[in-house]
Specification:
Blueprint: H1 2-22, E1 34-44, E2 50-61, E3 65-71, E4 75-79, E5 87-89, E6 92-97, E7 101-107, E8 114-122, E9 125-127, H2 129-132, E10 137-147, E11 150-155, E12 158-163, E13 167-175, E14 179-183, E15 187-191, E16 195-202, H3 206-209, E17 228-235, E18 242-248, H4 251-257, H5 263-388, H6 395-449, H7 453-473, H8 479-495, H9 502-517, H10 522-532, H11 534-545, H12 553-584, H13 596-694, H14 698-713, E19 725-734, H15 760-772
Parallel strand pairs: 1-19
Antiparallel strand pairs: 1-2, 2-7, 3-6, 4-7, 5-6, 8-9, 8-10, 10-17, 11-12, 13-16, 13-18, 14-17, 15-16, 18-19
Helix pairs in contact: 1-15, 5-12, 5-13, 6-7, 6-9, 6-10, 6-11, 7-8, 8-9
């Protein structure tokens, strides 16, 4: 719909503004090389009243601006393209810049030359645009246009109000879902699936300006001199409409539509033209005679051409047959290349899968096997070396050595254990004797403290005898060892009876006596124990050597020989395995084509190349088929065309014959024309001259001249300096108009923004798009 709106608007706008785009109207002022293009954009309320006015001005000079004068009533002037600002003294502006173009913008509140009043009636009742939302019924929309640039003037002796001419385009967008049965007198309606566009071309104020002046022949122009535009439609769940209007002056287009010639001044020209027509008729009569004679020559030449055309048709038919044969062959080739391409594709797929499986599965396995093979080879070499040094022993000698060794081990173990036990017993006896002696001394201590020597010695002796006798009875101590301890202890007790620390002295003597006299010979005790264990020793030796009685070294020697032979076979097998793995894969050169893996890779690469070549061949065959088809079609078209041409040529030959006959008739008619013109010159011209003298078009011509003067003088809305060529255009839109419907109507959706367009045919509507986007 966007393109439809743009194209429709473009057609209507070009009808109204083509002159301002192609032939700009400038004030007839002295030219100083500066032009001013002013565009006024008005934002309207839904009832048509002005909400905001934005004015964009474009100054251009080929030589730049050196204190160039300008005039403007705008407020809030801003430069749109640079930081240059004018020096301002009231409405007078002075620009200084090396740029060739200045684009500035501002706002104004003055009254536009064309205003609009929009009213709505739903089912006969007045309603506002805001209240229309969601309503249903029969809607009438009226746009009352007012030309505010009128002036009372003296026209042909009477007063008449003459308005400055403004070509005005009005457009309304109506959603398809809400608006049906649209009627727009003097307007056009364009629609698609989503939106409908109603457009009008009007010239407000012109009906009053030309009232009673247009002759009957020009009365149709009143359809464009509209001051009110009416749109009717049935609405359902109504969406308020949106309107856009554009206006500009164009005296050239107006005068081309209202061309009222001065008949009285042109009658002499008509008489001269009639005389020339008479002379031309005589010349035509003479020329038709020559034409009739030349047609005979042309007919003979065309017969030769027609024969050659038949020969060309025969050749074209042969070319068509050959082109068809070529096309059939090309199709067969195309089918064959397709099968070849399919086969190479399958081959490539299989080769790629094989190479992938080999590289993804076999190669890693071979690499792992190679490492295991090397380790196994190393282990087998070490085992073979060890087997070469194996010597089987003599069983009898081994028995003797083993028996002697077991006996030595047994004696050593028994001797150590017995000695440790004897030493442990001796230590226990000493410990017990010391404890018992200490207890006996403690009992005898009171007597020693009283200083009675004989009693102290006796008490100590009795006490020690009582505690040591059990050790003698159990064999842990001898009687001599006990008596020696008692004697030393009694002597110490008798000597210490008068001492203060008698108990301590006796205790020390007893401990010394026990330690020195109670001894244990651990080695002697161990010897006795080992000697007593001789039967157990013999039994242990017999038990160990008995295991060798069933040992058959002959079978072991045979087994060793077989193992050595097996080792040799394994070496041979390992060599064969290496040859096999080398044939499958070369780790140092993976692409070696002498191996299975390398050959598979080469096969995959070749299959890919074959597939690519087959695809190229297939494309070439397809192109050949397409070319052959084009050739065949062209040959068919050529043959058909020549057939038609041949038939037409026959028709032409017949027509030539008829034309020859007609040339004679033309010659006769030229003679009659000459006679008729002579009669017209003598009778009709006089009557026309009389009629022209009675026609009075002076009032209409005065109005046209006044309109031309007013159009040329209205060149600026907010002002321009003397010597500047200026023009102005106006665009109005209601605030709710969608963006896409304010886009450029030039048909290009990606136009540059207004300040960048310098050509008159693009700048106006591109600026509209820039402002309302």
């Amino acid at each position: 719909m966007k393109k439809l709106l743009q194209k429709t608007t473009a057609v209507l706008v070009s009808a109204a503004l083509a002159v301002t785009c192609a032939l700009p109207v400038f004030a007839e002022q002295p030219t100083e090389g500066v032009t001013k293009d002013e565009n006024v954009f008005l934002i309207l309320n839904p009832d048509g009243s002005v909400s905001e006015q934005i004015v964009s001005d474009w100054l251009h000079s080929d030589t730049g601006f050196d204190a160039a004068a300008d005039r403007s009533t705008l407020s809030g002037i801003t430069n749109l393209k640079s930081d240059v600002l004018p020096a301002q003294d009231g409405e007078n502006l002075t620009w200084t810049t090396e740029d060739n173009d200045i684009y500035y913008q501002g706002t104004t509140t003055q009254t536009p030359p064309v205003t609009v009043d929009i009213t709505y009636t739903l089912d006969g009742r007045s309603i506002t645009a805001d209240a229309l939302a969601g309503k249903s019924g029969h809607l009438v929309m009226r746009l009352a246009l007012t030309n505010n640039e009128g002036q009372e003037m003296e026209i042909a002796g009477s007063r008449r109000k003459v308005y400055t001419p403004f070509f005005t385009v009005a457009a309304a967008t109506l959603p398809t879902g809400s608006y049906t049965n649209i009627a727009a007198q003097h307007g056009t309606v364009q629609t698609d699936a989503k939106t409908q566009l109603v457009c009008f071309l009007a010239m407000p104020g012109m009906a009053e300006t030309f009232g009673g002046l247009l002759p009957e022949a020009l009365s149709g122009l009143e359809d464009y001199m509209l001051d009110e535009l009416v749109i009717e439609a049935d609405v359902k769940d109504c969406t308020p409409p949106a309107f856009m209007l554009a206006a500009a002056t164009s005296m050239d287009q107006l005068t081309s539509e209202l061309d009222v010639p001065d008949l009285s001044g042109q009658m002499s020209q008509l008489e001269d033209a009639t005389a020339q027509l008479q002379s031309g008729a005589a010349t035509l009569h003479e020329a038709t005679g020559t034409l009739q004679s030349k047609m005979d020559e042309f007919a003979a030449s065309y017969a030769t051409f027609d024969t050659g055309l038949d020969n060309a048709l025969s050749g074209a038919q042969q070319v068509q047959s050959g082109a068809q044969n070529l096309l059939d062959g090309a199709k067969s080739l195309d089918n064959g290349t397709q099968q070849l391409a399919d086969g190479t594709q399958q081959l490539n797929s299989g080769a790629q899968q094989l190479a992938g499986r080999l590289n993804g599965t076999l190669v890693p396995a071979l690499e792992g096997a190679a490492a295991q093979q090397a380790a196994l080879q190393q282990q087998m070499d070490a085992l073979a070396d060890q087997l070469g040094h194996v010597q089987l022993p003599d069983v009898d000698a081994l028995k003797k050595q083993l028996g002697a060794g077991v006996g030595q081990v047994f004696d050593g173990a028994a001797q150590g254990a017995a000695k440790a036990a004897a030493q442990s017993v001796g230590d226990a006896v000493k410990s017990g004797a010391l404890q018992a002696a200490d207890a006996a001394v403690a009992q005898a201590a009171p007597a020693a403290a009283q200083g009675v020597a004989s009693t102290a010695a006796q008490d100590v002796s009795s006490a020690l005898a009582a505690v040591l006798q059990p050790y003698v009875d159990s064999g842990k101590m001898t009687s001599d060892e006990m008596n020696a301890v008692i004697a030393e202890a009694a002597g110490a007790a008798q000597g210490a009876a008068a001492k203060v620390d008698a108990a301590g002295m006796v205790q020390g003597a007893v401990d010394k006596a026990v330690t020195g006299n109670v001894t244990v010979d651990a080695d002697a005790a161990a010897g006795q124990i080992v000697a007593a264990m001789a039967p157990e020793k013999e039994a242990a030796v017999n038990q160990v050597t008995a295991a060798l009685n069933g040992l058959d070294t002959a079978a072991l020697k045979a087994m060793l020989l077989q193992f050595q032979q097996l080792s040799g076979d394994a070496q041979t097998m390992m060599g064969s395995v290496k040859s096999l793995t080398d044939a499958l894969y070369n780790a140092d050169a993976p692409s070696d084509q002498n191996t299975v893996v390398g050959a598979a890779g080469a096969l995959a690469a070749g299959a890919q190349s074959a597939q690519d070549g087959a695809a190229s061949l297939r494309d070439g065959a397809a192109q050949l088929t397409a070319g052959a088809a084009q050739l065949s079609n062209g040959a068919s078209s050529l043959s058909a065309g020549l057939t038609q041409l041949s038939g037409a040529s026959k028709t032409v030959r017949g027509a030539i014959g008829q034309f020859r006959t007609g040339a004679g008739s033309l010659n006769d008619g030229a003679a009659q024309l000459q006679d008729g013109l002579d009669t017209y010159a003598s009778q009709a011209i006089g009557k026309l001259t009389e009629l022209a003298g009675s026609a009075d078009t002076s009032a209409l011509q005065d109005v046209l001249k006044a309109l031309e003067t007013r159009a040329q003088s209205y060149t600026s809305y907010t002002g321009s300096a003397d010597g500047v060529r200026a023009n102005v255009k106006f665009v109005m839109k209601t605030a709710g108009l969608p963006e896409e419907e304010t886009a450029s109507s030039s048909g290009t959706e990606d136009s540059e923004t207004a300040p960048q367009d310098k050509t008159p045919d693009a700048s106006f509507w591109d600026r509209v798009k820039n402002l309302f986007s």
